[in-house]
Amino acid sequence: MSEHFPVGRELFDDVMVPNYAPSAVIPVRGQGSRVWDQQDREFIDFAGGIAVNCLGHCHPALVSALKEQGEKIWHLSNVMTNEPALRLAKKLVDNTFADKVYFSNSGAESNEAALKLARRWALDVHGEEKSQIIAFKQGFHGRTFFTVTVGGQAAYSDGFGPKPGAIDHAEYNNLDSLKALISDKTCAVMMEPLQGEGGIVSPTPEFVKGVRELCDQHNALLIFDEVQTGIGRLGSLYAYEELGVTPDILTSAKGLGGGFPIGAMLTTTDIAKHLKIGTHGSTYGGNPLACAVGEAVLDTVNKPEVFDAVKAKHQLYVDGLNAINEKYNVFTEVRGKGLLIGAVLNENYQGKAKDFLVAAMEEGVMTLVAGANIVRFAPSLVIPDEDIAEGLARFEKAVAKLAS
């Protein structure tokens, strides 16, 4: 596998579709919460592949699972099932409200399956009049045409022709807004139990309980998109557990594979029966490699001591970011839960979140944004405390340059 040409950032512009604008940095190696680029520069990873690398880079349990399964069997298609898929499904069912699991390859695919299931359930049980889907403004549910339309950001769904119909958007944390839209024609309400892309916005307890009650009143399904919040990210296996509200359908991805593509839709037996043979499918969904890695992730993450550590590390970030802010006065607040944290830029730095990301990269720490005004942090759930301290020290240098 010798390289006969230079593989640098400029090659991206030559050979890749221009829908991304990637950093000039090309990582080639990762270990734990540290990454090295082509020039062997070291970075501390506070981005986690957008809340995906829940156990950091090259975690021994995941590497071992992939190698072991890679020497057994890779792919069968769903004409047959396989042992890793069955084991992972059993563990997901045993540790959640759900009775049944459908595997896909991504969060968008899991959400697509959830929305199709909700529509099919409503058609079978209540008739074709019950088709409305309600989601929330600033929500994000994926990039397929159905999921991007359900997502509440028109900038992502405009410009592709006529959109799927019977989809409406309420305001997050505004129950009256939902009441004005919901009716007996509503088949499902889809929400993130903490809005990620939309700005790291936590729901109030009254709001999330009210959404559940409204769904019950109107015989609508409640779908929780836990693609970003699941697998320990907020300090419990899934976020719904600490909200006191149980959804009818839950979607999972990102952290579920720790970096290997996998998604899952979880639901009850009564609802699942409406996706009968032939109604939905995925060639790769539930393949043995992905499910073997997913099982290793679940076995490693699903422990009280991991969840407790996530909550402790949350406080390290909040305290560290607040200390930086006391010196430089760049944020209005630091919000979020667990290891999904948003630092909201104040009026002097509006629209400059990307500037903070770029400056942080120059100082050797990888961060994210959530919109134009929020710097987002979604590191490994097992990031060592000393890496948090060092990464925050590097981030402070970036802030100092932008604030000077």
TrEMBL record:
The modification N6-(pyridoxal phosphate)lysine is found at K254. Pyridoxal 5'-phosphate binds at G107, A108, F140, D225, E226, V227, Q228, T283. Homodimer. PROSITE patterns: AA_TRANSFER_CLASS_3. This is Acetylornithine aminotransferase. CDD domains: OAT_like. The lineage of its organism: Bacteria, Pseudomonadati, Pseudomonadota, Gammaproteobacteria, Alteromonadales. The gene is argD. GO terms for molecular function: identical protein binding; N2-acetyl-L-ornithine:2-oxoglutarate 5-aminotransferase activity; pyridoxal phosphate binding.
